[in-house]
Amino acid sequence: MTKDIESNPPAKDSMQSEAENEIVLVTIHGTGVGEPTEEEDSWWLQGSKFLEKLEERLELDPKRIEIRPFLWEGGPNSEASRREAGRRLYELLKSYDAAEKDYYLICHSHGGSVAYSALLQSVDNNQPLERLKCWSTVGTPFLEYMRNKYLWQRLSGWQLWLYVISATTSLFTPMLLLLPYFDINWLGVVDNTLITSLYILPWPLTHAIFLILENYKSKAKSKASLSWITEKQKKAVAEHFSDSWVGHCHPQDEAVSALSNIKDVNEEIVKPKFLLPLIPVVQFLILIAWRFSPLDTFSWGQLSKFLPFPFLLEGGLYAALLLGFIVGLGFVLKSFALYLGKPISKWINKAVWSSVRENVWGDDVAQEDVIRIEAYPPSFSPMFRTMPDVVAEPLSEHSSNSAIRTLVKVREILGMTNTTTEKSKSTVGKGAMDLRSDLSKSLTWEELIHTSYFEVDKFIDLLALGLHQKGIAELKKEFIQKPQHELLRAWYEEDPITDRS
Fold first, then answer.
1. Residue 114 belongs to domain with CATH number
2. CA 446, 451, 455 angle in degrees (round to 5)?
3. Is residue 387 classed as helix, strand or coil in its secondary structure?
């Protein structure tokens, strides 16, 4: 497992100039990455094509500016892991404060969530990151959390079990106290009314103890990562760090759109009629149980003496009565199945979609719920501006062209084209593992806008200009002379509130 960069040995160039560095540029990757290999050209690593292109636009003198990747254990899709990574990032950034070094952050995807968690840590500890000049987020889906309303929703594991047991005991006690009034003494447990009335205490006591422990954890600085995010903390982050935030997000970013849209998905997976197919089975079981039960005492022999043709009519009457019973039973069972099926199907659908959302969001924080997902941090909406068309259009075109090229490769692997080579034809007869491997290799992840930002020159232009305006370095003349330079500068100078209106 890859460790964070603060515990990794710095790169050679970094070691030579560590004492001279005045500025640190921290790169933070997103979910599912962060374990680099020798063959991988990941944007956040030193020597990557992206950083080379950034140096073509900015005067990133290695003697003055140190580039340090922040790796957070492969980027697990877990809110708890993101907050833990944010805590460690906060400690790293505080060390730069102590060393009197200015620092800038470039964060992709949930790397921006990690940075936001670090800012929350700073306001929670009442120790602002004083030398943070800019934190630039790229395609970050910001999940806004709010504390669950009820205490039982904020408990888990043995605490939840204890709470449920104590609540059940307390709620059952009034029933025990009422039994003597109906001349019922269940197992003699109500002989002593005073002792029985004490059974109502476990729930209030458990509730009070858990509230005290919860309040203690939320106030303890050492337990700050376990407490929920408050509105006060969100507003404090906006107050201290909104001016240094530069947000970049394509209007069609797949990750932001998908995570946001799935919140409102509640399609019926289980229909209210799902119990109806069980009716014939239940009918059969009821008939069998009735036939062999003591209730089946009706004698058809007594009825036959009243019939003119006993041998013929007895069987027909029996069949008619049986058919009527089955039809009537079916009607009753259908009504009962529909009555139960609606609430049960609704509960199942809600549970399934809740589980899907938790897995997609990486929502593993028991005390809180996601209330919204946006391309900007909570309380930052006035500072967010839509990506300019001069950058958004090349991004869309790049991902579309990459998707077309990948589709051609996939068709060749599957042997679906007339131009399929002999090598790709041999793939058709391969096993599932080989085929899956070939298909996986054909994907570059540039098919998505979300993972293409650092491959598009126009976006790197936009990012470089933003870092320059925050004071990281001067622009190179070659970049200033580009025709789109003034368009990008004008975009940064626009008032986002006026622009939206």
1. 3.40.50.1820
2. 65
3. coil
CA neighbor of 467 nearest in space, from 95, 11, 53, 120: 53
Domain boundary among 295, 330, 361: 361
- Distance between CA 147 and CA 212 in Å, rounded? 16
> What are the tokens at 149?
């309303």
In total, the chain counts a number of residues equal to: 501
Q: How far apart are CA 68 and CA 10, in angstroms?
A: 8
Same domain, 283 and 299: yes
**Main-chain phi, psi angles of 140, to 5 degrees:** -90, 125
Q: Is 459 helix (H, G, I), strand (E, B) or coil?
A: helix
* pLDDT at res. 218: 60
User: Is residue 199 located within the same domain as residue 125?
Assistant: no
Q: For residue 199, give the DSSP letter.
A: G
Q: Are residues 205 and 296 in the same domain?
A: no
Per-residue confidence at 15, pLDDT binned at 50, 70, 90? very low
Q: Say how many C-beta atoms besides its own lie within 10 A of residue 485's C-beta.
A: 15
Q: What is the dihedral of CA 337, 343, 344, 345, to 10 degrees?
A: 90
Q: Which tokens in the block code for residue 406?
A: 């990948």
pLDDT digits (tens, 9 = 90+) for 486-496: 888 888 887 56
Q: Which DSSP state fits 309?
A: S
Please give the residue that has the higher pLDDT: either 416 or 465: 465
In-domain check, residue 281: yes
Residue whose token pair is 């998707």: 403
Burial of 117 (0-12, 13-18, 19+ CB in 10 A): buried
- Sign, CA dihedral 406-411-413-419, equals negative
Both 160 and 201 in one domain: the answer is yes
Whether 107 and 234 map to the same domain: the answer is yes
At which of 347, 381, 415 does a domain end? Answer: 381
Q: What is the pLDDT of residues 366-399, one digit of tens each?
A: 778 888 899 999 888 766 788 999 999 999 999 9
Mean per-residue pLDDT of the chain: 78
* Domain carrying residue 296: 276-361
SS3 assignment for 61-122: CCCCEEEEEECCCCCCCCHHHHHHHHHHHHHHHHHHHHCCCEEEEEEECCHHHHHHHHHHHH
Q: For residue 456, what are the CA distances in angstroms to 83, 233, 328?
A: 30, 36, 70
Mean pLDDT score, 38-66: 87
Residue reference for tokens 């059940």: 168
Please tell me the total count of domains within the chain: 3
Angle subtended at Cα 246 by Cα 245 and Cα 249, rounded to the nearest 5 degrees: 130
Hey, what amino acid is at 426?
S
Spell out the alpha helix ranges (H) of 305-431: 310-361, 389-413, 422-428
Q: Is the dihedral of CA 51, 56, 62, 64 positive or negative?
A: negative
Domain co-membership, 10 together with 76: yes
Same domain, 169 and 109: no
